[in-house]
UniProtKB/TrEMBL annotation:
Residues 418-585 form the Adenine deaminase C-terminal domain. Belongs to the metallo-dependent hydrolases superfamily. Adenine deaminase family. Transmembrane segments: none annotated. Its EC number is 3.5.4.2. This is Adenine deaminase. PANTHER family: ADENINE DEAMINASE (PTHR11113:SF2), N-ACETYLGLUCOSAMINE-6-PHOSPHATE DEACETYLASE (PTHR11113). Keywords: Hydrolase, Manganese. InterPro entries: Adenine_deam, Adenine_deam_C, Amidohydro-rel, Metal-dep_hydrolase_composite, Metal_Hydrolase. Its cofactor is Mn(2+). GO terms for molecular function: adenine deaminase activity. It comes from Azospirillum picis. It catalyses: adenine + H2O + H(+) = hypoxanthine + NH4(+). Residues 89-370 form the Amidohydrolase-related domain. It comes from the Bacteria.
Amino acid sequence: MAGRDRADRDLASRDLASLNLTAGRERLKARIGQALGEARADLVIKDTRFLNVVTGEIAEGDIAVCGDVIVGTYDSYDGVEEIDGRGLTVVPGFIDTHVHCESTCVTPQEFDRCVLPRGTTTAICDPHEICNVLGERGLRYFLDSAEGTALDLFVQLSSCVPATELETSGARLEAPDLIRHMDHPRVLGLAEFMNFPGVFHKVDGVLDKLAAFEGRHIDGHAPLMTGKELNAYLSCGIRNCHETTSAAEAMEKLRKGMQVLIRDGSVSKDVHALAEVIGPETSPFLGFCTDDRNPLDIAEEGHMDHLIRSAIRLGAPVAHVYRAATWSAARGFRLYDRGLVAPGHRADLVLLDDLEECAVNRVIRNGRVVGEHSFGGRPAVAPVGLDSVKLDPVTVDDFAVPAGGSVQSVIGLEPGKILTEHRRIEVPAVGGRMVADPARDLLKVCVFARHGSNRNVGRGFVQGFGFADGALASSVGHDSHNICTVGSNDADMAVAVNRLIDLQGGFVAVRDGRILGELALPLAGLMSLEPYEAVEVKLRALRAAVRAMGCPLAEPFLQLAFLPLPVIPHLKITDRGMVDVDRFELIAA
């Protein structure tokens, strides 16, 4: 009986293989016939110009598409559907090489709607924000979501959950947990390997993850890494870095074979520092990424189109900027089917009114013009983590910092960067407790563990927020996403944190005990359940409220969200206390 069952399965398998071969053969016949002009192409962009990112030339002619594949260029074609390409320039679809969709404050489906019409046809995401809150449940949510997006969304498996042992996360993902998902069709490899101290100290659990993905793609995270440490890091098969912030740093990494992903997010804006690196020799080894970029910035400035436009305005050669954003990005991630306007490549195309301004006229994804219809019929993915803020209400006493030495370690913000300074500043004390001093732009900052495993509170001080009265609070706190709050007084900070508990996550601004603005992010405390247009409107109102408080920062909540990130130099704070990132250790209270 068992032998008959096995024979039946083998027969079914052969029948399926035969059907697949037949379907594949018919697809190829159609492509060949349309490429030869024996039949009309499914789609033709007529009389257009296109950028050849191999040669840098602007070519003229028709672009013919069969199904989802380009079949003709540098020639004339007739199409079943035709687009008048006169006055337009066609370029390959843009590739965001590293993005945390959660940081757009919307679901993957809304991220899709937000960025695809702006020319981003492929995105490579790391869901480590939601994984640090929900573990594999969050990872499965992203894998399920990625299978239904209109853009091509790939999911890198989060390598650092938690990012370090200097904080409390909501979950752990070890090598066996990741191996279970490594062959999923949406997975390319291992996401940014932030725990570089674990690499240098040869920690077994850290090396297990690298060993499990040896020979596959591994993303890097190497801020200010240089010399022998960079050599050691690269020797583990790590291929790229999106944390490069200077031209000199970029050149060392490029010389050592590391792909540099030029980032411009809502906080970290590195295009200005790295545009000079883009050239004919380097562009094949570059890429662009947004990392963390919210819908308000996307609405006001753009997505990948903004990065391309910015680099060109800064003097980078046009063809090499587009090469980095398309072909080079694809090659770096072994996506050999895209990134060129050329026969045999995926028909992911962006039609531009102006090449240098990267002014998007329309987008073609998989051979079809993108419109609102592109997002219909996608499978619904149920939200997860709607009860992820497991923190009891707080009181003003929870914020108290006992008086110690007058000179304390203070975090110094650098606007537009996630790097922070380690300052030594005199902090005043009143009634045996250290207090904020808004006159010197010295505010209190606290991090509350919110995952229910402990009641840790990290307390310290920060300079750079610039407001004299009130408090901000966020459940977005990279990477463990505990509740972070900064303020001039404990009472307002308590109101802000308690409001976040009620909302089950989000952003809140408070002054004089009154809530000035808020945005609810109930999905894992990271994402809204509303359309991206609604989130944009609420972020705009929240930004105005914070500016009215006197805060000069362009993105105060994202600057706040990076204060607990103990893998970025130099001084940070987690629920366990102040962290000297250079020493990779907690500072004794």
